[in-house]
Every structure is written in structure tokens, then in C-alpha cells.
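From: lab user (bench 3)
To: helpdesk
Subject: output format question, protein + S-adenosylmethionine

Hello, I'm new to running complex predictions and I'm not sure whether the block I got back is the full result or only part of it. Here's what I submitted:
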Amino acid sequence: MLADVLPYLGCPHCGAALTLAGPAVRCATGHGFDVARQGYVNLVPGKVSGDSADMVAARADFLGKGHYAPITRAVVAAAGEVRGCVADLGAGTGHYLAAVLDAAPDAVGLALEVAKPALRWAARAHPRIGAVGADAWGALPVRGRAISVVLNVFAPRNPAELNRIVAAGGRLVVVTPTEDHLAALVAALDLLTVAPDKAQQVTARLTPHLRPSTQDLVEFGIELSHQDVLSLVGMGPSAWHVGVATLRERVAALPEPVRITASVLVTGYRRA
Ligand SMILES: C[S@@+](CC[C@H](N)C(=O)[O-])C[C@H]1O[C@@H](n2cnc3c(N)ncnc32)[C@H](O)[C@@H]1O
Ligand SMILES: [Zn+2]
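Helpdesk reply: Thanks, we reran it on our side. This is the complete output you should expect:
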């Protein structure tokens, strides 16, 4: 619910506290933001676009089938015991945030996302989620030191802002793909590759304010139908890169089921 997360937010124009006033959210200075019919509020000052409706639908389909369940479990474990507010930056459909909230009955969840189709999903992913339009590259409409746990799963981040919002003693959980993530599929379908030192690059930008405290290499096999492969490709950055017709042709040529390996690092950081 949006009202539950408002105490953790600040006006994107002036930083003042926000309150719910009928179908809008307002600050004391007089800035107002409409609450969308689907229950989220957009606090992005400019125009930023994220994943398309098709990408978000593909993501919901793929994650809903449980194919990334080991990653979800590792994220919940790394989040630890959560009270107060857990925020998910680049939350997508709210899948990981909802799982963390299921394990944390006293916490509320803040889904920060830029794509409207994703905000619509996230707003109804869990009764304790408030979905808020925010740009991960810019200043976040979140009060300083307000967030107990921040999740950042396959999504963009601004290290200075993460550092600003994580509470004293709080945590950040980042999921990054390794070079081996979906490697067989990347080769067969000519998808975008992951930089070999991706996780180290992320850690270098987050320290010294946030210190790595746990790291879990999560690797597991997945068996996918051709339709699942199309969802998996459709929900990722390669959706912009490979044409639909070419992709369908290449997927049709694969054996079914398609056997691939997921390989990600789940890194927990603590505020020093
Ligand atoms: C690869 S998806 C991951 C979504 C979700 N964390 C998950 O793993 O299911 C990346 C997400 O980041 C969002 N995104 C892209 N640019 C963004 C930005 N500048 N600010 C906030 N979110 C952004 C996209 O809309 C998309 O939902
Ligand atoms: Zn304001």
C-alpha cells in the first residue's frame, strides 16, 4: 500500500515529507503527484523509459513459473531479518520484493521502477508493497538513511544514492549475472554478453561506504520449453538487440527442452 511507504519518501522537487491527499500525493510546499488508477505514484521529475509492456509481461511469465526460484531464495536469505522498509531498485514486477516481504511480516516494501507497465505489476505483487516511479540513475525520492534493506536485482544503480538511503546497520543485496549466466543460450542465439568482471566493477563503485559482507554464487540447471526461452530472451536487454523473426527461427532450431545453466552472484553489503 502506497500510504505505508510514504514516511520513507521525500518530494523529488524539494525533499519535504509526502502525504496522501485523496487521489494524489502532496508535499508541504505544494508539489503534487497523481496516484495512478493502478495504485502507484510517479515521482520521476523528467521522462525516463524502462522496460516495455512486452518485456514486463515476459518477465512476469518466466518468474511466475519459478525458473529463478534458487535466486529468489538466495535474495531472501541475503536480506536477512527485515524490519521497517525494504526497497527494490529497478523492481520490475516486484517478484523478489514480494518474496522478501513474505519472509518479513513486519516490513513494508517500496518498489522503485521507471517503467509504467512494471509499476502496475509491482503495485499488486504484494499487499505491503507501495510502487513508486523513480529513476535509478538520478536522485531517488527517498529520505536519507531510511531503508533497512535495499534490493538491486539485474537492475541499474547509482552508488551515491544507494549509500545515501541505506540505514545505519542496513544492507544492500545486489544480484549480478556471471560470465557463465545462460552461456549456452547466449552462444546459440547471439545474445548480449556479460562483462567477465561485472560483479567486481559493481563492488568497486559501492565501496567504501557499503562493504561486501556475504557473497553467494548461485548456479543451477534449468529446462525450458521454446516458449520459456522466448520469455527469457524477451524479458532481458537482448529484447532490444535481436529481431523477433530471427529469434523465433533460432529458438525453433534448438532441442526441446532447452537445458541451460543460470549463474549469478548474490552479494550482500553492509553499511560500515
Ligand atoms: C532486467 S530488469 C530486472 C527487474 C527485476 N529486478 C527482476 O529481476 O525481476 C531491469 C529493470 O530495471 C528497470 N529500469 C531500467 N532503467 C531504470 C531506471 N533508470 N530507473 C529505474 N528502473 C529502471 C527496467 O524497467 C526493468 O524493470
Ligand atoms: Zn515538494
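A quick orientation on your result: The chain has a mean pLDDT of 94. Let us know if anything else is unclear.
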